[in-house]
């Protein structure tokens, strides 16, 4: 159990994750209140990484459920191991024959098989998927439910049930309860609105692009080979690029890729040629590249239009 927000920050930093006060406070509260954290934000800002880093920071296993369209309970919760059941049936054929040997009628034989049913519908033949793994775990775990917005709304409703009491009922086995409530992180890229019910159940964390100082700290930590002055210049440029009206803003992972590219090219300073030849590491759309180049050439910075607040919409 962590005792302070600072401790959360320190533990995450030891795993090379730079957490803002807001991130650290949310993680601290999640642990204290035993509530899941729903993390939203643009691509590549460290949503998934936060769950991984927290698992490593607490020495708990990370169990990950990657969501996608069509994901259902059998892939998320459990499946019966049909092939193994069949194999056991084959191997136990002699034994089964003995059980059925003196059955007078078909009905009697079926009844006898039914009496042995629990042999074949036991934990031995249950294949736990991530959610059940987290529930059955003997030690506390971190459960990452990644990109929940890709799953269907029905799956979200099912998840809500699991998250509310951490128990599942398997008809053949009864109710299975979690020995330890897992620390749960759900991430979403906002491709669709999540239900109010899910949000109500969770603590909410929006991770935005980092400030200049935060991003510089991440670069210094992850790419220490890059000269400090060059690192600062690079991050300053990334921050300026993000203010342009781009199709896709460069993410932290792209800043890190760029920093590594500069090291690989043994760049000493950010001259025009280096910038021109490496801009594609940051910007991945032709229109964005053109805007980026205009900026490098001292052109006007076409500012990113500020989004109108929802209450100002026409509809
Ligand atoms: N606060 C941070 N401290 C250290 N590294 C970070 C931080 N945020 C992001 N990173 C780096 O950025 C990379 C991308 O992060 P991550 O994959 O978690 O992004 P994401 O928000 O889950 O993106 P996506 O929405 O595309 O899945 C990570 O591998 C990590 O190296
Ligand atoms: Mg992710």
Q: How does this model look, in words?
A:
- The chain is α/β, with parallel strands linked by helices.
- It has three domains: 5-76 and 135-206, 3-Layer(aba) Sandwich (Rossmann fold); 79-125, no CATH class; 212-296.
- Helices cover 49% and strands 12% of the residues.
- The chain is built from 16 helices and nine strands.
- It has helices at residues 5-14, 21-33, 47-58, 73-76, 82-91, 93-100, 106-115, 117-120, 130-136, 153-165, 196-201, 212-222, 228-242, 252-264, 272-278, 286-296; strands at residues 37-40, 62-66, 78-80, 126-128, 142-146, 167-170, 174-177, 183-188, 203-206.
- A five-stranded parallel β-sheet has the order 2-5-8-1-9, with helices on both faces.
- A hairpin with a 3-residue loop joins strand 6 (167-170) and strand 7 (174-177).
- Helix 1 packs across helix 2 (21-33) and helix 12 crosses helix 14 (252-264).
- The chain is elongated and about 95 Å long.
- Mean pLDDT is 91; it is low at 309-315.
- It binds adenosine-5'-triphosphate (ATP) and magnesium ion.
- Adenosine-5'-triphosphate (ATP) is lined by residues 16-18, 43-49, 187, 189, 218, 222, 252-253, 256.
């Amino acid at each position: 159990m962590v005792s302070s927000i600072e401790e959360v920050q320190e533990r995450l930093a030891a795993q090379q994750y730079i957490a803002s006060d807001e991130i650290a406070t949310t993680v601290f509260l999640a642990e204290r209140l035993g509530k899941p954290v729903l993390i939203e934000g643009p691509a590549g800002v460290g949503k998934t990484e936060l769950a991984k880093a927290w698992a490593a920071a607490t020495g708990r296993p990370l169990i990950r459920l990657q969501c996608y369209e069509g994901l259902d309970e059998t892939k998320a919760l459990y499946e019966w191991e049909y092939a193994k059941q069949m194999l056991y049936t084959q191997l136990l054929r002699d034994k089964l024959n003995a059980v059925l040997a003196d059955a007078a009628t078909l009905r009697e034989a079926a009844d006898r098989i039914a009496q042995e049913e629990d042999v074949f519908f036991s934990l031995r033949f249950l294949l736990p998927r991530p959610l059940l793994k987290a529930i059955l775990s003997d030690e506390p775990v971190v459960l990452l439910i990644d990109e929940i917005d890709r799953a269907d709304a029905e799956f979200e409703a099912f998840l809500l049930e699991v998250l509310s009491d951490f128990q599942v009922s398997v008809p053949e086995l009864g109710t299975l309860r979690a020995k330890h409530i897992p620390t749960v992180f759900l991430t979403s890229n906002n491709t669709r609105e999540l239900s109010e019910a899910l949000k109500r159940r969770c603590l909410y964390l929006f991770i935005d692009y980092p400030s200049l100082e935060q991003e510089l700290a991440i670069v210094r930590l992850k790419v220490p080979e890059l000269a400090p002055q060059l690192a600062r210049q690079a991050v300053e440029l990334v921050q300026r690029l993000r203010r342009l009206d781009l199709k896709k803003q460069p993410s932290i992972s792209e800043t890190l890729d760029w920093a590594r590219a500069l090291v690989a090219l043994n760049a000493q300073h950010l001259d025009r040629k280096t910038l021109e030849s490496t801009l594609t590491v940051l910007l991945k759309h032709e229109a964005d590249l053109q805007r980026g180049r205009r900026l490098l050439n001292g052109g006007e910075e076409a500012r990113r239009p500020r989004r109108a607040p929802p209450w100002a919409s026409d509809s």
